[in-house]
């Protein structure tokens, strides 16, 4: 291995085709590593650049083009220096060309079609005959255009002599460049398929998005979704990319993103896209929107000092003590938006949702302030896609909520000091922002509330005229009080209550709070306690204390509640057969709140008496159900942060007896506790930390960042959320069926969602359906053949942190179509994958038991949805004329098979045990599956793919730019004026990260250093043959530790790796408001770094078994339940052909 970490390795000369390596021996833990593929670095990420389509001539090979901005006129490409150019353009909807094997190598690739072509994407030959281990054919040159025509593995592009008619070049390039791949391998005769194999690195893969150096500014205009005249619409950039949105009257995709940016006109058109094919059972449609109500459209990548939640236009009254009245439709309640039609004299408007007319929108009184406010609301309502009103009156009927944060700490000595250290920093942040904080301690038998009792000093002073000085002050004006540490004990474990008024034990003084934290270890040391805690009692105390004015409570614990009311039994212990059958495994990851209700229905006609375990479960379920209801009623949010040791779920020294293994780790009942957090609009967080006699400083940092994110990321409370749709569409339900908060059903209106708390990361999925007759034609349109528009408006009524009542309104306009090709082209990969993840969670949580098992049913439905989409694409577009031996993928959904395979392999849907292998260690465990289900049911488009398919980065021989800061500069042709917030967003410094490689065991070398990012955790893997100097340059050891447990910042390598980690933590975030960079992450947690150092023997054999944590994350490899990526494509292709033949 090279010792020069900052110098790129020179490219080796092309070697002769190597013979296939022998297969590795089978692993003993049930994981099949598959064949070792020839290791190849996937390089399509380097081609992720936008190219102007004003000219489609280029040299062979072309230079890398600059990236134009979304919606802005792109710069022309440089003139070709060679006389040998190839020019071609495609008209919309060309028929697929019959690809034939040429007698000689094909000419260089031609210019590619512009947005609007619907040619299919042939991805392979007869995949059932393709194997893996042969060297790939040479790769042709890469097209400079972001949008290239659909293609086939080992098939040539359409012959250059077949040139479709010329198409006008004025449309902008499509922004889906992030998911574009290199043209695949050169064709070869069909007769030689048995001897030529697929190169796995050439299949559609996930690229690493990184802004190119000195590229033109990257911006997007949402109004391109609704083009005027004959121009072609432009879909939004990928949800996990970085871009700046210009508010041009249409909603930002960072706030509202539809699964299809061209909506099917009616149910018939929808069935052409997602309908069941081949007589399969119904698995649901994918028509819906994902809404982040408190998202901010333009603050992505803005430095923290520039962040301001008021980037959303806020309308307030011109008088300081008054509020503003929004202009609304008298019939349906829709807020005025840019798509309403104003009368010429601005006295009335026609609603774009219900088409009714509202008169007298401007006041006729002589109140100048009222008239001014109405004119402000009218002006901004007609030009802003997202608008916020400062309201009062009928919108503000409840007392204001206090900014109070209460924390209940588990008395476990292994974690207590880390809790106190994290709260010490958090208290500084909260108190400095004008909020108050309180702390209590939860033991096994009682709840301790330390506080400072205020004692009044006796001051005997008199003024010059013998008037006594009041005892509260001295002559200098200082308070004459002293504070004495006191302790209140709440020992009633059956009916928890608030033993002390809230004002007595919350602090707004930094010094007193720090003194309190320093006194807690001594108070806990005097208590002789058993292992475990009465965490359920502590949660009850938090809710009772904040019942009057609301607030936020957080339980920091390392155990499930085991004493008092809300105690949870270990439903896993000693039962080695629970994981062998899905019917007995499902109760382990099902919340008791739902499980007991189902059991009551099932046993309503059964007279058998319940045993003690059932009674304990019933009592716990009743308590947590009532506690969640009370929290919603009194506007209290409860969060739970569970801290455990990494090795509780990663120790490989497993006994063959499952019951012995389960006894060595604790069952936390994540499902039940997570359901309580969900009912109160809180968050359940699971942090795995090292505890070899204590907690390291790095773990304290993770805990501190997570607590800051929880405390400062909540900017909305007491919220009501509603969605309105224009004629022809209606809200079917929220997804999953039991979303965050409480659903309120209304007669003749769409349902509302009541939330006690909402944060900028809160993403709500709304499932839509067509009304009878579909979307009607627009009566105001002059062209009767023009497809109508559809409008979706979300409204959020909430209270901000300053106590002001606000209404935030966002309006999205989309075009419609009855053509399947148009709808497929406008599919949004991020929204579709987030929707499919939530559908899978809903399938898994269904109450009914099926014969094949709920996990197997959910896994089958994922495949059925994928098959239906791809089969409809083949049957209802020009792909129908393609040869049946090709796997055809829509350009916008090229990664859909990869996502579906990864979702089936994820802890959400992966079976815990293989059939007939009940002696193996179950993976995932019930708590792990329940935790992933919590976040799968609330996943955002930006994180849907990463949470099931990890990114693997190799840190060996990084280029000099990787791991270093870079500040982009605005180009002279940039549309952003210097100093504007868009310019600030674009010019924010960022860190170059290496290109990702496929997550496969074949890509991990023994002398390599890697980061594996699964969305929840960053795994730093150091190979077994990495030299000692490189290890010491990267890793550190804590005092008294024998293992590496930290990353140094003193060396160049360590500093650059830390930079990459920092960038990975923030680059996948969605835009949102806040004051701290860590608050902005849309990841489930502040991703901890787990260091895995391999010992001699290779992957999975080292002592400690930490390597086995990443083996299930290598999604490209075959497992005991699923095939590898290439074999999965073969099987999927067979299912598609079968479905098409049956239909």
Computed structural class:
alpha+beta
The CATH superfamily of the largest domain is beta-sandwich domain of Sec23/24
Question: Roughly what is the average pLDDT, rounded to an integer?
Answer: 75
Main pleated sheet: 8 strands, mixed
How many β-strand stretches?
Answer: 35
Distance between the termini: 56 Å
Determine and state the CATH class of the largest domain: Mainly Beta
Rounded to an integer in angstroms, the radius of gyration calculated over CA atoms is 31 Å
Q: Based on CA inertia axes, which overall geometry fits?
A: globular
Q: Can you tell me the residue ranges where pLDDT is under 50 for at least 5 consecutive residues?
A: 1-10, 23-196, 210-217, 299-310, 648-663, 1068-1080, 1100-1104
Helical stretch count?
20
CATH topology of the largest domain: Immunoglobulin-like
User: What share of residues are in beta strands?
Assistant: 15-25%
Number of domains: 4
Work out the helicity level: 10-25%
Task: Quickly give the CATH architecture of the largest domain.
Answer: Sandwich
Detailed description of the structure:
This protein has 20 helices and 35 strands. The model is unreliable at 1-10, 23-196, 210-217, 299-310, 648-663, 1068-1080 and 1100-1104 (pLDDT under 50). Strand 13 (436-442) and strand 14 form a beta hairpin. The relative contact order is 0.13. 22% of the residues lie in helices and 16% in strands. Strands 5, 7, 11, 19, 21, 22, 24 and 25 form an 8-stranded mixed beta sheet that branches. It has a 7-stranded mixed beta sheet with strand order 15-14-13-12-16-17-18, sandwiched between helices.
């Amino acid at each position: 291995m090279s010792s020069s970490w900052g110098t790129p390795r020179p490219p080796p000369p092309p070697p002769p085709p190597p013979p296939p390596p022998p297969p590795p021996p089978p692993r003993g833990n049930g994981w099949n590593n598959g064949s070792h593929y020839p290791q190849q670095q996937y390089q399509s990420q380097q081609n992720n650049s936008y190219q102007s389509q004003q000219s489609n001539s280029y040299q062979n090979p072309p230079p890398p083009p600059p990236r134009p901005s979304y919606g802005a006129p792109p710069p022309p490409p440089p003139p070709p220096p060679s006389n040998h150019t190839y020019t071609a353009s495609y008209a919309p909807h060309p028929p697929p060309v019959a690809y034939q094997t040429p007698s000689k190598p094909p000419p260089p690739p031609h210019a590619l079609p512009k947005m609007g072509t619907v040619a299919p994407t042939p991805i392979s030959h007869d995949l059932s005959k393709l194997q893996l281990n042969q060297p790939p054919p040479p790769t042709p040159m890469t097209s400079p255009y972001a949008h290239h025509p659909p293609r086939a593995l080992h098939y040539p592009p359409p012959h250059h002599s077949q040139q479709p008619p010329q198409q006008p070049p004025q449309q902008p390039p499509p922004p889906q460049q992030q998911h574009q791949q290199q043209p695949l391998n050169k064709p070869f005769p069909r007769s030689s398929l048995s001897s030529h194999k697929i190169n796995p690195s050439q299949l559609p893969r996930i690229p690493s998005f990184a802004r190119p150096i000195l590229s033109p500014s990257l911006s997007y205009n949402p109004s391109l979704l609704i083009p005027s005249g004959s121009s072609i619409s432009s879909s939004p950039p990928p949800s996990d990319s970085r871009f700046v949105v210009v508010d041009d009257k249409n909603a930002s995709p960072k706030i509202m993103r539809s699964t299809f940016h061209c909506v099917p006109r009616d149910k018939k058109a929808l069935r052409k896209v997602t309908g069941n094919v081949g007589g399969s059972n119904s698995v649901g449609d994918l028509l819906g929107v994902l809404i982040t109500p408190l998202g901010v459209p333009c603050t992505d990548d803005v430095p923290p000092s520039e962040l301001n939640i008021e980037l959303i236009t806020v309308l307030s009254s011109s008088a300081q003590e008054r509020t503003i009245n929004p202009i609304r439709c008298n019939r349906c309640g829709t807020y005025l938006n840019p798509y309403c039609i104003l009368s010429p004299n601005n006295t009335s408007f026609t609603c774009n949702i219900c088409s009714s007319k509202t008169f007298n929108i401007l006041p006729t009184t002589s109140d100048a302030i009222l008239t001014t406010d109405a004119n402000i609301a009218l002006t901004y309502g007609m030009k802003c896609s997202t608008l916020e009103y400062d309201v009062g009156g009928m919108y503000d009927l409840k007392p204001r909520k206090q900014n109070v944060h209460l924390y209940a700490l588990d008395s476990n000595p292994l974690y207590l000091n880390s809790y106190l250290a994290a709260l010490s920093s958090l208290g500084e942040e909260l108190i400095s922002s004008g909020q108050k904080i309180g702390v209590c301690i939860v033991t096994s038998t009682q709840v301790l509330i330390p506080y400072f009792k205020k004692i009044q000093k006796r001051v005997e002073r008199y003024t010059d005229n013998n008037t006594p000085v009041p005892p509260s002050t001295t002559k200098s004006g200082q308070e004459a009080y002293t504070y004495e540490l006191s302790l209140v004990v709440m020992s009633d474990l059956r009916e928890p209550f608030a033993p002390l008024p809230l004002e007595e034990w919350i602090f707004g003084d930094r010094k007193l709070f720090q003194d309190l934290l320093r006194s807690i270890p001594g108070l806990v040391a005097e208590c002789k306690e058993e292992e475990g805690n009465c965490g359920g009692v502590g949660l009850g105390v938090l809710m009772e204390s904040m019942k009057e004015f609301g607030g936020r409570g957080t339980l920091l614990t390392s155990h499930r509640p085991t004493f008092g009311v809300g105690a949870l039994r270990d439903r896993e212990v000693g039962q080695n057969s629970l994981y062998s059958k899905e019917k007995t495994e499902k109760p382990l990851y099902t919340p008791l709140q739902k499980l007991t209700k189902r059991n009551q229905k099932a046993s309503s006609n059964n007279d058998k008496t319940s045993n003690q375990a059932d009674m304990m479960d019933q009592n716990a379920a009743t308590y947590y159900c009532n506690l969640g209801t009370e929290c919603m009623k009194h506007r209290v949010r409860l969060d739970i942060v569970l801290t455990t040791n990494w090795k509780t779920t990663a120790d490989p020294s497993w006994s063959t007896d499952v019951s012995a293994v389960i006894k060595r780790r604790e069952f936390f009942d994540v499902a039940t506790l997570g359901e309580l957090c969900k009912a109160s609009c809180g968050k359940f967080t699971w942090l795995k930390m090292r505890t070899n006699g204590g907690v390291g400083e790095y773990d304290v940092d993770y805990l501190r960042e997570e607590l800051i994110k929880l405390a400062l990321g909540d900017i909305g409370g007491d919220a009501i959320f509603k969605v309105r749709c224009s004629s022809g569409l209606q809200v079917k339900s929220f997804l999953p069926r039991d979303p965050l908060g409480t659903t309120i059903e209304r007669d003749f209106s769409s349902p509302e969602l009541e939330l006690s708390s909402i944060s900028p990361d809160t993403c709500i999925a709304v499932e839509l359906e067509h009304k009878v007759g579909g979307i009607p034609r627009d009566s105001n349109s002059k062209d009767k053949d023009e497809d109508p528009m559809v409008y979706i408006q979300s409204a959020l009524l909430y209270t901000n942190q300053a106590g002001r009542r606000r209404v935030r309104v966002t309006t999205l306009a989309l075009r419609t179509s009855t053509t399947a090709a148009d709808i497929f082209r406008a599919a949004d990969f991020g929204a579709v994958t987030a929707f499919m993840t939530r559908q899978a969670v809903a399938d898994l949580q269904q109450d009914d038991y099926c014969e094949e098992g709920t996990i197997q049913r959910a896994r089958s439905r994922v495949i059925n949805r994928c098959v239906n989409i791809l089969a409809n694409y083949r049957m209802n577009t020009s792909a129908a004329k393609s040869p049946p031996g090709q796997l055809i993928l829509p350009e916008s959904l090229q990664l859909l098979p990869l996502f579906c395979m990864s979702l089936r392999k994820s802890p959400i849907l992966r079976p815990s045990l293989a059939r007939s292998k009940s002696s193996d260690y179950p993976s995932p465990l019930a708590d792990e599956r329940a935790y992933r289900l919590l976040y799968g049911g609330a996943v955002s488009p930006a994180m849907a793919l990463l949470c099931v398919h990890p990114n693997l980065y190799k840190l060996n021989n990084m280029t000099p730019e990787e791991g270093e800061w870079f500040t982009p500069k605005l180009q002279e042709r940039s549309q952003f004026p210097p100093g504007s917030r868009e310019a600030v967003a674009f010019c924010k410094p960022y860190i170059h990260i290496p290109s990702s490689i496929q997550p496969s065991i074949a890509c991990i070398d023994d002398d390599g250093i890697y980061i594996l990012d699964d969305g929840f955790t960053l795994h730093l893997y150091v190979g077994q043959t990495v030299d000692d100097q490189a290890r010491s340059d990267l890793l550190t050891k804590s005092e008294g530790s024998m293992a590496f447990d930290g990353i140094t910042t003193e060396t160049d390598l360590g500093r650059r790796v830390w930079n990459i980690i920092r960038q990975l933590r923030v680059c996948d975030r969605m835009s949102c408001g806040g004051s701290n960079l860590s608050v902005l992450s849309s990841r489930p947690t502040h991703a901890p770094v787990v260091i895995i150092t391999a010992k001699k023997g290779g992957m999975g054999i080292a002592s400690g078994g930490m390597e086995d944590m990443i083996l299930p994350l290598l999604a490209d490899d075959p497992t005991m339940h699923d095939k590898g990526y290439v074999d999965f494509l073969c099987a999927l292709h067979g299912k598609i052909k079968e479905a098409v033949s049956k239909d």
